[in-house]
Design brief:
This protein is α/β, with parallel strands linked by helices. The chain has 3 domains: 3-63, Winged helix-like DNA-binding domain superfamily/Winged helix DNA-binding domain (Arc Repressor Mutant, subunit A, Orthogonal Bundle), CATH 1.10.10.10; 65-159 and 269-289, 3-Layer(aba) Sandwich (D-Maltodextrin-Binding Protein, domain 2); 160-261, 3-Layer(aba) Sandwich (D-Maltodextrin-Binding Protein, domain 2), CATH 3.40.190.290. Helices cover 42% and strands 26% of the residues. It is globular, with a radius of gyration of 23 Å.
């Protein structure tokens, strides 16, 4: 079966539209529609339902999607292995990550990597912890940054411990303390990430036996910083996220202290492409060569 049909199908699923998929692939809309119809005819069942709102997977389409992703991943890995044997340096690396790593680590990692491997392309997916775990599970990414402990069934490479800090408005009554006592969390208006994204802070508060008074909830890490700056409450965030963003708020060590461990997660180390294997090596070395900034 022609692998280009799988590629077209996956692009339609990713974009949710035949028209947008056609634009991305350089085809006509009717051409993509013909490809999907041909694939459905070969398989013997419908993969997509079409409406004015776009396209959606059928139940059968949901069932075959992981296998189709696996076939395309395998084809990509084969291309990269062949290229490596021929002395070429090509390929695509799909990386999933969360905000603090996407902003403060990935650009530097990619810059160093691209100096030695300029022909490698990157596809970056940015979300929260839950998103990255889901992308790893369904094969949407080759490697992902996670916070340990993680529920994902992957090989993990711990990279660095990252302290959790309390953040307060600068004029907060407790801003002059050396450390923020976790026992006082329940008396404050607390600004929280969504439950799936907030394992770090929730774990620290559960271990301390305290329950926060959650006043606001958001999926955006930097929205939390802005809300704290404006006096809407306090929060607990990783130190890496605060890099370069402490001018208008007070960041304090917690008492008792808490931290997360940032790690790389690899779905199947035995099937890594040459490009992904090299990126993992570069990422680990970059973290070693860039220790946390003081203050």
């Amino acid at each position: 079966m022609n692998i280009s049909k799988y590629q077209a199908f996956l692009k339609v699923v990713e974009l949710g539209s035949l028209t947008r998929a056609a634009e991305a692939l350089g085809y006509t809309q009717s051409g993509v529609s013909h490809i999907i119809n041909s694939l459905e005819e070969e398989l013997g069942f419908a993969l997509l339902t079409r409406s004015r709102a776009g396209v959606q997977l059928t139940a059968d389409g949901e069932r075959v999607l992981p296998a189709i992703r696996s076939i395309l991943n395998g084809a990509s890995q084969l291309d990269q292995i062949v290229a490596a044997i021929r002395g070429l340096d090509t390929g695509v690396i799909r990386v999933g990550t969360f905000t603090s790593v996407a902003v403060h680590w990935l650009p530097g990692m990619i810059k160093v990597f691209q100096q030695d491997h300029p022909n490698i392309e990157f596809k970056l997916l940015n979300g929260d912890y839950h998103d990255v775990e889901r992308w790893l599970a369904d094969g949407s990414i080759d490697v992902g940054f996670v916070a340990l402990p993680s529920r994902i069934d992957c090989r993990t490479i711990p990279l660095r411990e990252d302290r959790l800090l309390a953040i307060l408005p600068k004029d907060h009554p407790r801003a002059k303390l050396d450390k923020y006592p976790l026992s006082e969390i329940g008396s404050e208006d607390f600004i929280s990430l969504l439950k799936n994204s907030d394992q770090d802070a929730r774990r620290a508060m559960e271990l301390a036996g305290v329950t926060p008074h959650i006043k606001f909830t958001t999926k955006d890490d930097y929205a939390i910083l802005a809300m704290v700056e404006n006096g809407l409450g306090i929060s607990i965030v990783p130190e890496l996220l605060l890099q370069g963003h402490t001018q208008n708020l007070r960041a304090m060590e917690l008492f008792p202290g808490a931290k997360r461990t940032i790690a790389l997660a690899i779905p199947d180390a035995g099937s890594l492409s040459p490009a992904v294997s090299r990126f993992v090596e570069y990422a680990c070395r970059w973290v070693e060569e860039h220790p946390p900034k003081e203050g």
